[in-house]
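Pipeline run #58 for the internal structure catalog. This entry was flagged by the ingest filter as a single-chain record with no existing model, so it goes straight to prediction. Upstream metadata was stripped on purpose; only the residue string is passed forward. Reviewer on rotation: M.T. Logging verbosity set to normal.
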Amino acid sequence: MLKFDQRINDYIHKYTTPEDKILQDLYRETNLKVLYPRMLAGHLQGKILEMISKMICPENILEIGTYTGYSAICLAKGLSENGKVHTIERNDELMDISGKYFKKAGFKNRIVQYTGDAKSIIPQLNLSFELVYIDSDKYEYLDIYHLVFDKVPPGGYILADNVLWEGKVFKKSKPVDKETRGIIEFNNFVKDDERVENTILPFRDGLMIIRKNK
């Protein structure tokens, strides 16, 4: 993650709407029971996702990378009245935790869970998504982008997490790991994609916001 002055982090937390009890419990359980708990969105990023969702008020959201469900709950808070989040997770061992908290948060019937390879599942989803959130294996970001693009209407948004990848994207030497190569290839493609406009929020590990123009 990008490192900020601790005073800045403390100040941001102080002046951000407090994390609700269900998300606090989910954060705690993830840290106690799940490997690599840092993959969790967490309070500040979760609130940003919630705010973006509330601004768009989407009918359908697609999330690639459920993990334990924190971000899906945050995104679901901005759904339109009959909207749904469709979320895909490769690791089926995490579905018990995420499903339990979807129910506790009151979104049991508004969050649809899929388990398996997102690249196989996405083509089967005959829906339009006003908001897509990508937070899966980094080497497949560009493949995911191509798969979801035609499912996003003009004016819709795609969010991509970890696009600064702990600063590895700044290295001048050719990256040897596929995750870093995947992020760099994705960032370069989006930058040159004339169908969209985009920016990066330098928050945590970098959140890219992409708006589809055509």
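catalog note: Helices lie at 6-14, 21-33, 42-56, 70-76, 95-104, 118-121, 141-149, 178-192.
catalog note: The longest strand covers residues 84-89.
status: ready for reviewer M.T.
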